[in-house]
Specification:
The complex is a heterodimer of chains A (202) and B (152).
Chain A (H helix, E strand, L loop, with lengths): L1 H24 L18 E4 L20 H6 L1 E3 L7 E7 L5 H15 L5 E7 L4 H10 L7 E3 L4 H5 L7 E5 L5 E6 L4 H18 L1
Parallel strand pairs in A: 3-4, 4-5
Antiparallel strand pairs in A: 1-2, 1-5, 3-6, 6-7
Chain B lengths: L1 H20 L1 H5 L7 H12 L18 H15 L4 H12 L14 H27 L3 H10 L3
Helix pairs in contact in B: 3-4
The chains are: A alpha/beta (202), B mainly alpha (152).
Chain lengths: 202, 152
Amino acid sequence: MNWKRSVIAVAVIVPVIVLFWYGLSLDPRTIPSPLPGQPAPEFTLKLMDPPEGVGERGEVYTATAIGADAASAGTVSLAELRGKVVVLNFWASWCLACRDEHTALSEVATLYRDRGVVFYGVLYNDTPEPARRWIEEMGGQSYPTLLDPGSRTAIDYGLYGVPETFFIDPEGKVAYKHIGPVTRALLMQKLDEILAAGGEGT
Amino acid sequence: MRRSVLRHGVGLLLTGMLLGTNPVVATTQEPSDSVAALEALTSKVAAQLRCPVCQGLSIQDSPTELALEMRAVIRDQLAEGRTPEEVKAYFVSKYGEWILLEPKPEGFNLAVYALPIAGLLVGAGALVLSVRRWTKQGGAGVAEGMVGDLPE
């Protein structure tokens, strides 16, 4: 009789332990994104600082990095950027991890400027004033930042925190999504991959 | 008499609840008098979606900036004439099925719905068997003793 009970006890307890083991090994904060491989959500956003006002401090971001039409209108829409690799980095001045990745983003943006890669920052739940101060404090940003009032674009991109970085291929598809701060190595590796894939296609 | 009044009351209450929460009724109203209905429907949809920056809170219950902005998105989409299902599908397309607080009853998810019922049945079965065994072993005396211990 006793062995029967033990068998039942084991049969009940073991699956529970296995389930707990599996469940507790998951990070409740990771949200699987369905976006990679899908067409990137379209957006038309205002530039925080249209290029006209830039240059006094000698920053490198000018109309050459942005489409000339977009620069004149003071807005950028993803549709205009078809044919280019777009790196979209959501950031905020209150975001600590954004400080870690800032130098890498600025440097790689400059490195890949002539290879058909454009970088854009998207300000998330922040206002231009602290954002400009932050950029100044960090020693400049080599690419423009866009404003996203109401976080409509952020929600369209399934954002749940900053920093998050989206790599969009020349056809306008999300090639890769990175959660958390990016590094120089990661940026360059992903960009090389996307550029190589694009080169084969054309 | 009192019982029938009570029953009518409950009936009315139930119909009221059904009408109030029925999305079809809410969306087919004129836009002018549907502000309250839109707000109610927004809350209803928001309560079914998970807040991405919280732990186990719905967008409706979360006071975070992102949740408030998501509520605004829900309200706008409903005002544009999208159905609650379409709004939910929009969020699923952005955040994955993760965003649904209640998993869709299909595939592996069915376990969530079936297991509690299965557990209940197994438990009831075990209880019936045990009670039978106890009563067979002359449990009548125990039962009488227990009656005496019960409070009034």
